[in-house]
Amino acid sequence: MAVIVFIVGSVYRYRTSPFQVSSLSSQFLEGKSLFWGSVPFHIGILFLFFGHLAAFLFPKSVLAWNNQPWRLLILEASALIFALSFLIGLFHLFIRRVTHPRLNVVTNKMDILIEVLLFVQGIFGCWVALGFRWGSSWFASTLSPYLWSLVQLNPKVDAVSAMNWVIQVHIFGAFLILLLFPFTRLVHMLVAPLHYLARSYQRVIWYWDRKSIRNPLTAWCVKRPKNN
Question: Theoretical Cys-Cys bridge with 149: which of 130, 156, 203, 208, CB 3.0 to 4.6 Å?
Fold first, then answer.
């Protein structure tokens, strides 16, 4: 159900209101503290997303990587560091959103709900990482077959039902976020401007004297300024 709502809802939103498929940037309203929340949040969530995706798509490769203890430690430590980066950035963004009056005007209930859910999901993820060690290995060997059984429409929940309730809550949280995805700002991930990375540079040339144009002491004239 979560996957169906995710696909249908995302396509429907893009087809009916394509200009609303964005993160509704608030940098213009308040950008001084945005960097310290946005950068660690995005770096953390991207690493965690592709890390989980790699364990799902290439479980044998992950297990082969983890055969060496030092490589397993590097992977587990890196995942925990990026998880903390995700939580710190998200917490900063949440405080910024609820404490700045300008941002309150463009904030709705779904924005608050999805940020809270992401934060709780991150807390449970760190709990799983610290309380149930070597998650990259047992994810690849246990959860990956379970997820593939869902793709094949033949759910095999025996292994998951035997896991600790903390892990089950973390799995449920992932499906809940996936279910709400089309109704939140997270949908902008599907239209991220990745083509900018391969686009050629644009040259911007300023032909006017900034000091004379921007000087507030210059005499007023009927003719409209060129840069306004």
Answer: 156
Distance of CA 106 to the CA centre of its chain: 19
pLDDT in tens, the chain (228 residues): 999 999 999 999 888 887 777 766 666 556 667 788 888 999 999 999 999 999 999 999 999 999 999 999 999 999 999 999 999 999 998 998 888 887 887 788 988 999 999 999 999 999 999 999 889 999 999 999 999 999 888 888 888 888 999 999 999 999 999 999 999 888 888 877 776 777 787 777 766 666 666 566 666 565 655 655
Place of tokens 């498929």: 21
Q: Are 141 and 59 in contact (CB under 8 A)?
A: yes
120: nearest Cα among 172, 187, 183: 172
Angle at 25 between CA 188 and CA 207, to 5 degrees: 115
Question: How many Cβ atoms from other residues are within 10 Å of residue 117's Cβ?
Answer: 15
Using alpha carbons only, give the angle 26, 123, 2 rounded to the nearest 5 degrees. Answer: 75
- How much is the pTM? 0.78
Helix (H) or strand (E) holding 132: none
Q: How far is CA 8 from CA 4, 18, 20, in A?
A: 6, 14, 16
**Domain 30-214 falls in which CATH fold?**
Fumarate Reductase Cytochrome B subunit (1.20.950)
